[in-house]
Amino acid sequence: MNDKIIQCAICTNEMREWEGNNPQPLLPDMEDKVCRDCNDFVTALRLVLRGTDNETMRGYSEVIVSIMSLASGLKKARKMHMQMMEEE
Ligand SMILES: [Zn+2]
């Protein structure tokens, strides 16, 4: 089993390489891997946008990926803040 640690291409959380999922069509790069949480969004996107053309899919994907990475940054900042409050 491959236990190499890699980063999720969307939320930057770390995971073992074998836990990574393919993010297409959310991310076009076949080399990118996403974590299980982000993969739920990939699956949802595939379901919601089933039958739409590639251009529409790409447009939505760009917006969704930027929302997801921004939101995970906010989540990390919030968690860090909570942790600091607890330590005081
Ligand atoms: Zn992720």
Quick structural gist:
The chain has 88 residues and is mainly α. It contains 2 helices and 2 strands, in the order ββαα.
Q: Would you give an account of this structure?
A:
- The chain is mainly α and 88 residues long.
- The chain has one domain (5-87).
- Helix content is 53%, strand content 7%.
- The chain has two helices and two strands.
- The chain has helices at residues 36-48, 54-87; strands at 5-7, 14-16.
- The protein has a two-stranded antiparallel ribbon.
- The model has no long low-confidence stretch (mean pLDDT 93).
- The structure holds zinc ion.
- Residues 8, 10-11, 13, 34-35, 37-38 line the site of zinc ion.
State the shape.
flat
Bound molecules: zinc ion
Largest sheet: 2 strands, antiparallel
Q: What Rg, in angstroms, do the CA atoms define?
A: 15 Å
N-C termini distance: 42 Å
The ordered string of helix (H) and strand (E) elements is: EEHH
Helices, by number, come to 2
What is the residue-averaged pLDDT?
93
**What is the structural class?**
mainly alpha
Portion in strands? 5-15%
Please list the strands of the largest sheet in the order they lie side by side: 1-2
Q: Which percent bin holds the helix content?
A: 40-55%
Model regions low in confidence, pLDDT < 50 over at least 5 residues: none
How many discrete structural domains? 1
According to DSSP, the number of beta strands is 2
